[in-house]
Recover the amino acids of this structure.
């Protein structure tokens, strides 16, 4: 192959790589994305949170919801549960301080090249003896 042809092919490859990079950034960038915060975990790791919401139920009970981003594939339920088990002790204090009887951890995962967000929730409830128990978990369809 001639030197000039090799140079043109290399130039084309570089241009395509730049174009693909720009497209990926443009597709992933969302100016309307919620502001994120970092929640420190006992292990020293951090989880990226983006919303805390209080849900008031009839009868006076309430739940505090923590929405956070996860990188874990939703097919790996055990890994999602381990992550929630690690996050819960750091969030439980907020739930208790709010006087809520339930805490909900809402794991959110965005797929590449999609604006669709998958949501998997873990619902903790305060028991009569004051302890907290994981009552339910599952994928939420939006």
């Amino acid at each position: 192959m001639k030197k000039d042809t090799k140079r043109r092919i290399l130039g084309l490859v570089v241009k395509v790589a730049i174009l693909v990079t720009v497209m990926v950034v443009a597709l992933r960038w969302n100016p309307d994305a919620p502001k994120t915060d970092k929640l420190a975990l006992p292990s020293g790791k951090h989880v990226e949170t983006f919303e805390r919401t209080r849900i008031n139920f009839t009868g006076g009970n309430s739940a505090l919801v923590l929405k956070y981003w996860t990188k874990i594939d939703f097919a790996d339920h055990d890994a999602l549960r381990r992550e929630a088990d690690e996050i819960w002790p750091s969030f439980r204090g907020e739930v208790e301080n709010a006087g809520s009887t339930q805490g909900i951890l809402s794991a959110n995962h965005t797929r590449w090249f999609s604006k669709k967000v998958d949501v998997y929730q873990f619902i903790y409830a305060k028991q009569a003896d004051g302890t907290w128990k994981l009552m339910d978990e599952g994928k939420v369809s939006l």
